[in-house]
Amino acid sequence: MRMVDLIEKKRDGADLTKEEIEFIIQGYTNDEIPDYQMSAFAMAVFFQDMTPQERASLTMAMVESGDQIDLSKIEGIKVDKHSTGGVGDKTTIALAPLVAAVGVPVAKMSGRGLGHTGGTIDKLEAIPGFHVEIDTSEFSELVNKNKLAVIGQTANLTPADKKLYGLRDVTATVNSIPLIASSIMSKKIASGADAIVLDVKTGSGAFMKELEKSKELAEAMVEIGNNLGRQTMAIISDMNQPLGFSVGNALEVKEAIEMLKGNGPDDLLELCLTLGSYMVFLAKQATSIEEARTKLQEVIANGAAIEKLKTFIAAQGGDPTVVDDTNKLPSASYEIPIKATESGYISKIVADKIGLAAMTLGAGRATKESVIDLAVGIILHKKIGDQVKEGEAIATLHSNSENVDTVIELVQGSFTIVQEPINPPTLIYNSIS
Ligand code: URA
């Protein structure tokens, strides 16, 4: 087989076999296929697309390029959740203990974040003492005992994807549905999940800005998962404004804790109940989505979900008393209110700008080497559709510096106030299974 012939075949719109795709991915991972040939191949895929069979073969070839996590020692059906990411997305912190409290084993491999705030691990590390440095046997034991554990990502998960993603980033080939879908699904499948629930975000603060494209991506990922024997479901959820009110690591942990105590916010709760219902259903802990939702509501109401969070924190070295007293979480030195410049209704909160503002305060990483400040961030006081009076606080910065003029400008500039009443945006647009 010669790479040049396979590039030509794809360029001319023909379908590649499983063996041909394996040849490409193995050759690229082993440095036998150079970047320039792989770039040409990625561009051919960008223009010619891939069949469902090709997408499944590409995903599996990337899974097989590195370590595959063996979760077989964990009892029950392991359901993973993946979000394509957004501003204020603290869903995993609330959702993991919520579904674990219903009996779903949650064996979560998570990463650190690059961008507006930290990733799930960074957020969890805002809890004093909490750590994810546990070995795989302890990880399995903890999930069997408590139904929930979180571990850091192994370095050698889908190396082919890592290399290809870096190449796509500099060859204008990131934005290709077959390449994005196989990239995301390869990581989920290599992480050992039996079933997968996907939260594909759409809107100004999302990786996919347009609803149609988000739908296409969700459908592509569901098809790959199902073709590879992992039951997969997806929702498309709104990211035209941050999720919940808090953006920033400790602030987001606090909001997730409040949600598990039954204190909202409504959008975070609804998202967790929707994603959680699918997880509980796929894990066969309920016979219908409706029954699953009722079970989730029960564990919030009877305190089992918040108790599960405490058990999980303590098992991984953290201080579980932060759950009862969230003042024990890191807090910033200054709270700086940002006021509305006119009266009216909030019609827009550009999530990207709020994310950038939080990152500027120190909540996120500009580069992999950046050190993040777990205490800082932004609390919104208004969401789209809310009425506001001139001079009323629309947000509060939690900062460790008083010198925040650019951040104030960013936050103020992310809000649009209009005179006509506005309907809040839809939170969940579609479900795909
Ligand atoms: N996220 C991924 O993991 N891969 C992509 O290709 C795009 C977003």
From TrEMBL:
What Gene3D superfamilies does the database record attribute to this sequence? Nucleoside phosphorylase/phosphoribosyltransferase catalytic domain, Pyrimidine nucleoside phosphorylase-like, C-terminal domain, Transferase, Pyrimidine Nucleoside Phosphorylase, Chain C
Catalytic activity from the UniProt record: 2'-deoxyuridine + phosphate = 2-deoxy-alpha-D-ribose 1-phosphate + uracil; thymidine + phosphate = 2-deoxy-alpha-D-ribose 1-phosphate + thymine; uridine + phosphate = alpha-D-ribose 1-phosphate + uracil
Domain of life, per UniProt, equals Bacteria
Give the PROSITE patterns listed for this entry.
Answer: THYMID_PHOSPHORYLASE
**Where in the numbering of this chain does the Pyrimidine nucleoside phosphorylase C-terminal domain appear?**
345-418
* Molecular-function annotations in GO: pyrimidine-nucleoside phosphorylase activity
User: Which cofactors?
Assistant: K(+)
* Keyword tags: Glycosyltransferase, Transferase
The keyword Transferase belongs to this UniProt entry's keyword annotation: yes
Does Mitochondrion count among this protein's keywords?
no
InterPro entries linked to this entry: Glycosyl_Trfase_fam3, Glycosyl_Trfase_fam3_N_dom, Glycosyl_Trfase_fam3_N_dom_sf, Nuc_phospho_transferase, PYNP-like_C_sf, PYNP_C, Pyrmidine_PPas_bac/euk, Pyrmidine_PPase_CS
One Pfam assignment: PYNP_C
Task: State which Enzyme Commission number(s) the record gives.
Answer: 2.4.2.2
Assembly and binders: Homodimer.
Q: Which family does it belong to?
A: Belongs to the thymidine/pyrimidine-nucleoside phosphorylase family.
**NCBIfam families the UniProt entry points to:** PRK05820.1, PRK06078.1, Y_phosphoryl
Purpose: Catalyzes phosphorolysis of the pyrimidine nucleosides uridine, thymidine and 2'-deoxyuridine with the formation of the corresponding pyrimidine base and ribose-1-phosphate.
Q: What is this protein called?
A: Pyrimidine-nucleoside phosphorylase
Q: Which organism is it from?
A: Alkalihalobacterium chitinilyticum
